[in-house]
Structure formats: structure tokens, C-alpha cells
Amino acid sequence: MSLRWPAVWILGAGQCVYWGVLYYTFSVLLVPMRAEFGASAAAVAGAFSAGLGVNALLASRIGQCLDAGKGTGLLRYGAIAAAVLLLAWSFAASLAEVYFVWLGLGVSMACVLYETAFGLITRAIAEPARRMSALASVTIMGGLASTIFLPADGWGVVHLGWRTTLRILALVWLLTALVLESHALPEIHATEKRRRNEIAPHPAALPDRLRVALLGAPFVIATLAAMTLSTLVVPMLVDRGESIERAAWVLAAFGVMQLPGRLWLWRGGRTLAPAALLLAPLMLQSLGLLLLAAASNLWLAFIGVGTFGIGAGLHTLARPWIVPHLFGVAMAGRVNGAIARAQGVARASGPVVAASIYGRLGMTPLLVALSIALLLLCPIALRTASQALREQAA
Length: 394
Known about the structure:
Layout: H1 5-37, H2 41-67, H3 71-90, H4 95-112, H5 114-124, H6 128-142, H7 145-159, H8 162-183, H9 185-195, H10 209-239, H11 244-256, H12 259-267, H13 274-294, H14 298-327, H15 329-361, H16 363-376, H17 378-393
Helix pairs in contact: 1-2, 1-4, 1-6, 1-7, 1-8, 2-4, 2-5, 2-15, 3-4, 3-5, 3-8, 5-6, 5-9, 5-15, 6-12, 6-14, 7-8, 10-11, 10-14, 10-15, 10-16, 10-17, 11-14, 12-14, 13-14, 13-16, 13-17, 14-15, 14-17, 15-16
């Protein structure tokens, strides 16, 4: 029996909550924490960067656990730990305690976010078209996280205070974990267990590290570009004379426009060729950066950010879709983990590096350089797609 759709959608709903709380809440709570602890924004944001760093360091190990069939355990115990740590964060009396909590939350991020969800889907669903649809379903739900949680967090901070908001989020998190435990994880685990005989055991080491590095390069540069855009679009537009409210609406297009491509793959684009799935996101992201670099008004900036968002939404699905074709399901967790570690480093260091370049050279040279880098990676993506097609034929 194949994995039923309710379990897939519940897994996706869990990703919405987990991303909303762990990834987006910090930016809203940064201002009140800065005021209460008497610290700079950079000092407070360092706690989040520390968590992202831990997440990146653990990515390879998480991949090994997924290949060993331990994905449901990661999701279960990572969620329990996060609920406790979120509550502890709400009682933090100093910035040092916030840092300590976020080192632990970095471990939870590694256990409960997309990598684990993708690994469970990959191992539980054998039929490629249905697997793509399931992956798209999970990312559609996860993509709603910023839309739901950023406004809710903002309202909570204004009306309840940041500590009470965190305690409510910890309760929402715990309830989500309980729903997953009762309505999704047992079925996912049972389905994966039935398929274990179909999945050959993996060797001890990664196959052909150069091949893995070439596959990962476009994803790492795209992650760096995404972090640059999400970090610097608002400051760039404010420096050009726009209000912060209008600039924030432009940035909002990044999250919202990631959904159309995922919805298309879920509904009707499931037979998309590997070349299209790898090349189209790179080209869309490159075009979006160029439009943003040349933007002379707010509308063109909005179109540029939206175009980049469409490409980023597709790119999120490309890696978990293509890796099993190139390396097999048994090795997918380890390969995805190796690439996710490099992406995690780019995610953690991207804001600092981008802000430094922005301060010295300005935004336009930075955006153009990233756009050119994405275009130069297209031949590598095309080669990867050709390999995937040969694997499918074999």
C-alpha cells in the first residue's frame, strides 16, 4: 500500500509550522530582544546565525540517518526538543542564554525541516510522478510559513510581548507535533518499512565526490543569491528613497511567488524533464536579479523579486527530485545531506558577506555578479540533467 495523501499534507502542514516558528519568528523578535537585552542588532542576530551554523554542520549526519531509515525518529525527537527549547527561550534572562538555546534549536532545525521531510517522502513513495507531487505538496504548505507566521508574530509582539508570543508558539509547535505523531508519522514509518527490501543498502562513502560537488554548485550559489536578496532588498530600496513599508511589500513577493511553480508541479507539471527542472530555476533567478539591479521604480523591483521567487520555488524541488535518479534512493539522504551542508554554510554566511560587499561596492555590482554566476552554472545543470536521463533509461 502506498503512502496516503492525508499523511503527506499533514507532513506539509508540520513543515509550515516548523519553518514559521524556527526560521521566520526570529526576525520579528529581534527588535524587542535588542531593546530588552541592550544589545546591537548584529549581536542578537548572531544567535540565529549560530543555530544556522549548527544546522549546516549536522546536515551530512542527518542524511546518513535518513538512509538508515531513522527519519521518523529525527522528526519526532527533534520536535520534542524544540518545544522545550522554545519555552526556555521565552524565559531567557540574558543574550548568552538566547545563544545557548539557539545552539540547541540548530540541532532541532537539522532534524525537523525540509531535509528530513524530503527524505521520508523519497523513501516512502516509489513511483516518480507521485513522489514529485508529494514533494510539491510539502513545499506548498511550507511556503505558506512566512505569510502566516510573520504577521501573527508581529501582532503577538505588539499586543502580548515577545515572551508570551514565544510561549504561545511553543504550544502551537507541541500541538503540531502531536498531530504528526497521531496522524502521519506511524503511516509514513510503516510505508517506508515495507519498502526497505526494495532499497539496496548504501556503501560507506559518498560516490564520486566531484560529481556531488558539481550537482551541488548551482544550489549553493542560488542559496547565496536568495540570502543576499532577502537581506538587502529592503535596505537597497530605502537607500533609493522608498519607505520601509513599501520596500517590505516588494520583499514579500519573494515568498508568495515561490508558490505558483510548486502548485504547477503538484497539479500538472509532474512530467517536467530534468533539464527544465534544473535550468529553468537558474535562468529565472538570474533574470530576477538583473531586473532588480536595473530597477528604476518599485514595480520593476517587485517584478524582479517575484521572478527570482518563482525560480527559487522550483529550485527547492529540483534537488530532492534529481538526487534519487542520479544516486539511487538508498544514497539520497547522504548526497542531499552533503549538498545541504554546503547550502547551510551559504545560508549562515550569506547575509554577512553580502552586506559587506554591499557596503563597499553597492547593490548593482553584487546582483549582476550573482546573476552571471547563475548563468555560468547552467552548463553544469544541463550535464546533470543528461546524467539523470541516462539513469532513468537504465
